[in-house]
Amino acid sequence: MSEIVQPSPIAVPLGAVRPLLLNWRRHVPLLLVAPLLIYMLVLYALPVLAMLLRSLNDPNWTLSHYAALFEDVVFAKTFWITFNTSITVTLGCLILGYPVALGLVRAKTMAPLILVIILLPFWTSVLVRSYAWMVLLGRHGLVNEGLIALGMIDRPIRILNTTLATQIAMIHILLPYMILPIANALRQIDPSLIRAASGLGATPFMTFRQVILPLSMSGVAAGTLLTFVLALGFYITPAMVGGPRDITLSMLIAQQVDQLNWAYAATLSAVLLATALAILAAARHLPGVGNAFKTSMR
Amino acid sequence: MGKNRSHLHLGRRTALGLVGAGLAAPFIRPSLAQQAWPEQTSIPDILKGSGEVRIAGYGGSMQEAQTKAYYESFEKLSGIKVRPFPDANGPKVKAMVETGNVEWDVAQLSRGSIMNLQKTGDYFEKIDYSIVDDGVGQEYRFEYGLEMLLWAQVLAYRTDAFKGAVPSGWADFWDTKKFPGDRAMFGTGGGGWPEMEMALMAAGVPADKLYPLDVDKALASYNKIKKDVVKWWETGAVPIQLLTDREVTMTTVWNGRMAALQAAGVPAAISWNQGLLKRDAWGIPKGAKNKVNAMKFVAFSTMAIPQARVALAIPYGSVNTKSDEYIPAARQEVLPSAPAIKKQLVTYNYDWWIDNREAVIPKFNKWLLS
ipTM, 2 decimals? Predict the structure, then answer.
């Protein structure tokens, strides 16, 4: 009895400091991320900013580096090549990735195995994979020898060192970034909806078209965004397996850093970063895409 | 330029060299076992000291060669400890000097990358020539660096591709009727500059009339071979890979890479005629902590015997005229510094490129993308 009436010894001081405590609690998430935040700020954000500043103050404060881009044919072409490649690769990933995501979600006992197969390339360096593609796509590589053996071609054709090779290798590297968000969205779909659809007489295709596809759009959006933005920054793969004219913006930036034209390199970097950020910002306002960020975080 | 010639480097380029790693081992030729090498037994007192010297090179088999050639003997004879670093390059020196955090005392660069930087600010210490060996040719000396390694950018071809015909010079490289097959050429990787000299020689410009380069004429000449060049390579492993995999029948290469290819049994050869004779140079970053030790090391490594030892370890030539007596005749056949080979090569004019690269590179980029 007395135990109930008697306030516990610590309850009193607790009650007294409650407002302060609540306040403190509200800031717990911030405190938890603070070490990483400071680390990123000092070792990443500040150096990046310092580099980007060179596009404005090298040798003195000026916008001329940006103004010059408007007449810069090399910039215009590399920008177009970069954009074009990213779109093609993203579409390729979507077409190849969606069915895989669907299979991954449907598979029961095989699911872990499929997941490992999807993730395996993640643990191999981009460089090693690019070399592997060089071996496969080469004039005397597996693909050409296979096509010859099948009688589809008489002589080896050039696949390596073409734009097609860049696209094939990039799709391979970026596929997991497309598959995983889509699989995630598909897994969120309530199975009873699918049962209800077929119960109401929908064919499997109609169920897919009218229930599964619309409900998975948040995953498609997340995967597409992720793949596209990552594709914008590619540079090893096109340099290694690409054609003689496959010069991406990142390759141009690397070239200009090596040539010590750091102001120009910084200007190009700023444009590339702004492009990626603008795409992310614009995409947030598209219907259904806002959820994508949430979905992919689950 | 020099930067990419490492046989193994870190980062992107490291791994580009990885394929070359297996190939790199035979660079240290077993037939030239170390006991047969000339040995430096003493040095002038002025080269002795204490403490350490931090030397940035390219890592990999180049560092292996340098360790055997002069790092070990310098440590023993001078009492100064050598700490090697991989991945030397000009942009890093720029960043180090600008932030006041100079981590290297000496860096293996080129006259091009050193003077390119020096033109825009004060990035390098002046070389103390009072302690440099007399045998080092005047042509290798400049105010802010000392050239210490000769190499060549040359034509290489598959010997099984042309029914016994032997290409010689850039007119043959350009002649895809007589010498059919795809080509690869150097582009602009690692701070290097495109091979406009080759294009001009293909168009008939004599080797001694190349500089100043006629850029428009070079691009017009490039036009004739553009569709046959399947790769504008950026790093030395790539042309070697392309030759090995029969992706091209002819390419430009860094000569040091070919020894490994041939040792691996690939039917390929160098044609030295009209190749470009290039040089690596030691540069001492401004504000280097051990700059006195660095000067001593620079002087030691360019003496006759250390230079000869490098040429025995890796097929690159010496800048010291007195080295030749320590290098067997058989070895001379693969060195760009050997008189019979050197006279076929064209001395690369770094100065012209330093003055003009800012205008030429955008022109080349534009041409490439058009």
Answer: 0.85
